[in-house]
Structures are given as C-alpha cells and as structure tokens.
TrEMBL record:
InterPro entries: N_methyl_site (IPR012902). Keywords: Competence, Membrane, Transmembrane, Transmembrane helix. The keyword Zinc does not apply. GO terms for cellular component: cell surface. It comes from Rossellomorea aquimaris. It is found in: Cell surface. This is Prepilin-type N-terminal cleavage/methylation domain-containing protein. The chain crosses the membrane at residues 13-32.
Length: 144
C-alpha cells in the first residue's frame, strides 16, 4: 500500500487561513492607526508653526508700531497698523482671538494680554491655544 502524505488536510488549511487572517487584521489595523496618528501629528505641527508665526509677527508689530488695531472676522486675524494691514489666514485653520479690543492698542502705554485659539477646520478637536502677553519696554520713546 502506498501512503502519499504530501498534501494538506482540511484542518491544516483552515488553521493556516485563520492564523493569516488574524495576522492580516492586526497589521491592517496598525497600518491605519499609523496613518491616522501621522495626519494628526502633521496637523498639530502645522498649527504650532502658524502659532509661532502669528506670535512673532504680532510681537514685532507691538514693539515697533505707535498703535494698531486687531480684528477677528471669519477665522482670520487682521492687524491694522501704520497705514498697513496684515492678515493671518489659513485655508485649513481657524484663528480665534479672545477679547479683541474695540479701540486701538497703544503699545507704549500698555502691555496687551493675548489669547489666540487655533483650530483645525477638518478636525476640531485638534487645536492649540496661545496665552501670552505682548509687551514693549516703557520709556523707550523720546516723546514720553
């Protein structure tokens, strides 16, 4: 009698398929979780870069201008100073300025507390808050 044992039994095939399915599901899940966290990290990085740019520009305006005005229409921050206007806008981000004063800010007279919230329009839970104070050394103006 000839015994041919080169083939696989049904149990071996099913066990192999089950193990491969479990491994495939785990790899698939890890792959898509990695993509999700990468997108979130890129978004957070972009928000922080925009926050640094806004803070740097507003600090420079506060320290070099006689006066300026802040407005916050439609997820944008507008700064009017020295017959110029600068606008901070990003297609994917929303800029929210808390307690923007109605009257012009006089940097040589007061320090200005600033609270800006930057939110990702596509992922509202992904946001960054800047809580800082814009200041200028007092008495540096010869007219005082």
């Amino acid at each position: 009698m000839i015994h041919n044992e080169r083939g696989l039994t049904l149990v071996e095939v099913l066990a192999t398929l089950t193990i491969l399915s479990i491994i495939g599901a785990v790899v698939w899940n890890v792959f898509f979780q990695g993509i999700h966290y990468t997108k979130k990290a890129v978004s957070q990085n972009s928000i922080q870069q925009e926050a640094n740019i806004i803070t740097m520009r507003l600090t420079r305006i506060h320290q070099t201008s006689e006066s300026y005005e802040l407005e916050n229409p439609d997820c944008t921050i507008k700064v009017k100073y020295s017959e110029q206007e600068e606008e901070f806008h990003h297609n994917d981000l929303c800029f929210s300025l808390e307690n923007a004063p109605e009257e012009p800010i006089l940097p040589s007279k007061v320090d200005y507390p600033l609270l800006i919230t930057i939110t990702d329009k596509h992922h509202p839970k992904n946001k960054f808050v800047i809580d800082t104070t814009l200041y200028r050394l007092k008495g540096s103006n010869h007219n005082e």
